[in-house]
Every structure is written in C-alpha cells, then in structure tokens.
Amino acid sequence: MNTSDHDPSADDYVYDEDSGEWMPASELAAKQAASADADQVEVRDAVGNLLADGDQVTLIKDLDVKGAGKTLKQGTVIKSIRLTGDAQEIDCKYPGIKGLVLRAEFVRKR
Known about the structure:
Elements: E1 13-16, E2 21-24, H1 25-39, E3 57-59, E4 63-65, E5 70-72, E6 77-78, E7 82-83, E8 89-94, E9 97-103, E10 107-109
Antiparallel strand pairs: 1-2, 3-6, 3-10, 4-5, 7-8, 8-9
C-alpha cells in the first residue's frame, strides 16, 4: 500500500463522552456543531425583534434599579448589550451602575 494515498484523518476516532462511544472525529464535530445551534436561545425585545450581542436598545418604561438607588428613565439608550443565555435577561453596561441586567420585555431594539 502506498502511504501517500492513505488519508490519515479517515482513521481518527475520538471518544464522545455524551454517548460513551468512539466515533470518527468528523462525525463528532458535526454532532457538536448541531448541538451548539440547538443551545442558542432566542431573545426578543418587547415588540418581538430578535436581539443579538452588541445591539443597542432603548428602555420602554422607567425602571428602578435595585441596589443602585437610581431610576433609568424611559427612552434611555443602552449600548452594546450582551446575551446571558436566558431568554428574558440581557447584560448591559451603564455609567454608574455595575452588573446591570435588564429584562428583555422592557427594552426595544434601536
């Protein structure tokens, strides 16, 4: 057998911890990509727009921020949101408030 005709990736088997079986590396990579897509949570704002990391949002009502002693007014623009993996919560940065998490039902995408 000529070794230059041999595809070394065809023999690569890896252990899949979820199923407890050995499978071809390409098959495991495809399985992991499919499960990563399934794990994505859709986060929608108050009017149904799909939100993504980095979007800008506007508050649709006045919100009292617990622990900060501040009220964020309706119309306040929040820049560069981050999704948390929860369908209703978004992580935000706002001057003077650390660790701000807003409910998606109180924002509208800009």
